[in-house]
Amino acid sequence: MEPIRRSTGDMDKGLLNINSMKRFTKEMQLEVVKSIVSGDYFMKEAMERYGIKSHGTLKRWLKKHLVEAKLLLYAEQDNVTFNLSDCDKEKIVNEEREKKESQHIALNEKIIYQYKIIALHEHIRLLETVNSELRKNRNELLIEVKRLKER
To answer: Is-contact 76 37, C-beta < 8 A?
Structure first.
C-alpha cells in the first residue's frame, strides 16, 4: 500500500501538520497500533503504510496504546461497542502493569532460587572434597597408629 502523504486533506486522515512535521492524532495512533496488534501489519510495514519515520515513535505508541487497542479488537470481534473513560483505561493499564511486575518478581525469585541451588551444589562438592581429604588423612593416621603400636 502507498504511504499516506501529507496534503491539505491529511487532517481528515488523522494527521496534523505543525511546523512541517507530521503529528498523528490519538485516534490515528490507536489505529496504527491496532493494525499491528491484529496482525495486519508488521512494525516496518505499518511505518511504511502510515508514513511513520521513527521506529522509536512507533514503540512509544505501542507502549501507550497497547491495552486499549487490544480491548477495541476484542470488542470488534464480539461486535461490542464501548467507550472507556480515562479512569477505566488507567485502571486496566495499572492492572496490566501489576500483572507484569508480579510476573517479573516471580521470575526474579525463581532465578534467586536457582542461584541458591547452584551455590548449595558447589558447597556440597566442596564438602565432599574436604570429606575425602579427611578420610584419606584419617586412614593415614590409622596406619601410623597401627605401625606405632606394633613397635
So the answer is: no
For the chain, where are the alpha helices, taking DSSP H only?
Answer: 26-37, 43-50, 55-77, 86-150
Q: Which three cell numbers stand for residue 127?
A: 564438602
Per-residue DSSP letter, 7? S
Q: Exposure pattern of 84-122 as b/e (b: 16+ CB <10 Å)?
A: eeeeeeeeeeeeeeeeeeeeeeeeeeeeeeeeeeeeeee
**Tens digit of each residue's pLDDT (9 = 90 or more) over 46-59:** 999 999 998 999 99
**Three-state DSSP state, 37:** helix
Distance CA 123, CA 105 (A): 27
Q: Is 13 exposed, middle or buried (0-12, 13-18, 19+ CB in 10 A)?
A: middle
Domain ranges for the chain: 1-83, 100-151
* Contact in structure between 14 and 24 (CB atoms under 8 Å): yes
Query: Looking at the whole model, is its pTM more than 0.70?
Result: no
